[in-house]
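Bug report (template v2)

What were you trying to do?
Predict the complex of my protein with flavin-adenine dinucleotide.

What happened?
Run completed; filing so the output is reviewed.

Input:
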Amino acid sequence: MQKKCITIRPTSFDPCESSGGSAPIENADAGEEFSLTKFIKREEIKSDRPELGTARIVVSGGRGMQNGDNFKLITAIADKLNAAIGASRAAVDAGYISNDHQVGQTGKVVVPDLYIAVGISGAIQHLAGMKESKVIVAINKDGEAPIFSVADYGLEADLFEALPQFLEELNKLNTIQK
Ligand SMILES: Cc1cc2nc3c(=O)[nH]c(=O)nc-3n(C[C@H](O)[C@H](O)[C@H](O)COP(=O)(O)OP(=O)(O)OC[C@H]3O[C@@H](n4cnc5c(N)ncnc54)[C@H](O)[C@@H]3O)c2cc1C
């Protein structure tokens, strides 16, 4: 029997109609028992925040954040938008944030409705993990940064000025639906 392994990124697809379709539910036989492998345990990281791989909005920080403490700026915006927090590998390698936040070729591949890249240059390995996002916003003080070539909206600015202003505007809105 031919075996297939299929993985699906749910956010790559539009949600299906809640009525009108027909998809029969069938029980699948689990097949023969595995003699060489056994289930030991499932470890899940519980968080109030949406999971990076399935979040509708992702706010990511890069080396431009300068240190882990400055990620508070990202966290505050992510809280307002009910977003997941991502990071570039440079930010992870520098110890600003743990590696389960890494987006890219050797991190997670994300396809949110909105991806906000802050202080991230847009190296090809990072783009591999987020370029399919539906809307990409980049904040970078270098107007030549490659991230701007994939961004739908680009803000050439110092993130330490732009993020507090962004947060102030979000605080005024206060109507974001969770
Ligand atoms: C095999 C391999 C696999 C890799 N896998 C990944 C991966 O999965 N994910 C990944 O991200 N990378 C990966 N990388 C690393 C990748 O090549 C880049 O080095 C990395 O993405 C750079 O991260 P960065 O954009 O945060 O840092 P940088 O390239 O240093 O960019 C920092 C940016 O911040 C901007 N900036 C600085 N200060 C400010 C400020 N005050 N305000 C606004 N902007 C500012 C700068 O203008 C710059 O554009 C991989 C590399 C290799 C070789």
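What did the reviewer find?
Residues 57-173 form a domain with the Rossmann fold fold (CATH 3.40.50.1220). The first strand starts at residue 57 and ends at 61.
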